[in-house]
Amino acid sequence: MFERYKGGEKALLVHVFFSHESDIEDLKEFEVLVSSARIEILDIITTSRKSPQIKYFVGEGKAQEIAELVKLHNASVILVNHSLTPTQERNLEKLCECRVVDRTGLILDIFAQRARTHEGKLQVELAQLQYLSTRLVRGWTHLERQKGGIGLRGPGETQLETDRRLIRHRIQVILNRLDKVEKQRALNRQSRLKANLSTVSLVGYTNAGKSTLFNALTNSDVYAANQLFATLDPTLRRIQVEDVGEIVLADTVGFIRHLPHDLVAAFKATLLETKESELILHVIDASNANLYDNIEAVDQVLTEIGADNIPVLLIMNKIDLLDGRQASIDRDENGLPFRVWLSAENKVGLDLLLLALKERLCKQIYNCHIKLPINLISLRSRFYQLNSIVKEIVNEDGSFSLAIRIPLIEWNRLCKQNPDLLYLINDKVEIS
């Protein structure tokens, strides 16, 4: 049912400059999108209009020019950097005798290529089905009538109606499965809440360096590449932050201008990780000349998913591509970090990011002295894991006297697991 690019296809690109859209950056981004789909660009056709033409979107003269270029270059597909109606798509295909794919279709195809997990594939298939349900006429014009006669009597519906019914059924099946995924994610979030674990989500424009930063912070090997939508499937890892304890860091799908609404809806379960975060790290490619438009595009998606009220820490990534820019922290009038400059690729400024996370997430700190008997010696390694031991001495009986500085959340968690800890506190004893 789905036409997926195999790579090596040859395409003509079509872009229309409207009166409110004169920026060339949108076209450059579309070229990167096409390259990400492993398609060879034969030629780029541009035109200017005040509004889309109803029949062909680009105007009849330009449509004829495109048809001639298709034959000249022997192109296999026409890629349009706009959302086309099913009628416009069908009319262009008939005129040019060539497949026509709009921006939404191209993004869906890239997502189909990159999805790896079962959940990611379900989400992409759902978005594809919702997109294709309005475009079925294109493939079934020869079967659009009911048939009669001996041996040809069927269910009383056209092939088109049958396909639409089957697609509606498949969409419902996928929605039911994704509902189960969403419930499982909700349970996981509840478990983290009970464990008092903060969740911090990485968001940002596609190819801003989120996965590279995620790998640098967590020592993971999440796929990261210099291409759009390298990450589709969310990944969660725990990291240790001084005076905060363990937090959960979530790597999410990248955003883009004109992100198809079907995709936002399909990835609802994934994006809920962002919505439920305590802090959002908005990763920005500081070397991109169009960074302010990219920031606005991300903010629009955050508003759309209901995550616009969550505190945000801006991460200005790729400073290695800026002349003379050093890693640093920018603070607001209250001294609170609101922007960090770093290079995830070169691992420069990560210590500053951890410091900013500490200041933004810092909870109440608990200080105490405890005497740890031999039967609870396993707690000593746990304190070391939390980087909470300030000083220690070994007593003659083999026990340990510890000076502890620990986030209150972690202390309460340990006391729940080991109630005897409360009886080991002895602040009268000084540890020299």
CATH superfamily of the largest domain: P-loop containing nucleotide triphosphate hydrolases
* Share in β-strands: 15-25%
The level-1 CATH class of the largest domain: Alpha Beta
First-last Cα distance: 74 Å
Shape annotation: elongated
By DSSP, the count of extended strands is 14
Mean pLDDT, nearest integer? Answer: 80
Number of domains: 3
Poorly predicted segments? 1-7, 140-144
- The name of the CATH topology of the largest domain is Rossmann fold
Please write the string of helix (H) and strand (E) elements.
EHEHEHEHHHEHEEHHEHEEEHEHEEH
Task: Supply the number of helical segments.
Answer: 13
Strand order, sheet with most strands = 6-7-5-8-9-11-10
Would you tell me the structural class of the helices and strands? alpha/beta
Can you summarize the main beta sheet? Answer: 7 strands, mixed
Helix proportion range: 25-40%
Rg, nearest Å: 28 Å
Proper CATH architecture of the largest domain: 3-Layer(aba) Sandwich
How would you portray this structure in words?
This protein is α/β, with parallel strands linked by helices. It folds into three domains: 10-101, GTPase HflX, N-terminal domain (Rossmann fold, 3-Layer(aba) Sandwich), CATH 3.40.50; 196-361, 3-Layer(aba) Sandwich (Rossmann fold), CATH 3.40.50.300; 365-423, Alpha-Beta Plaits (2-Layer Sandwich). Helices cover 39% and strands 21% of the residues. The strands form three sheets. It has a seven-stranded mixed sheet with strand order 6-7-5-8-9-11-10, with helices on both faces. Strands 2-1-3-4 form a four-stranded parallel sheet, with helices on both faces. The protein has a three-stranded antiparallel sheet with strand order 12-14-13. It is elongated and about 95 Å long.
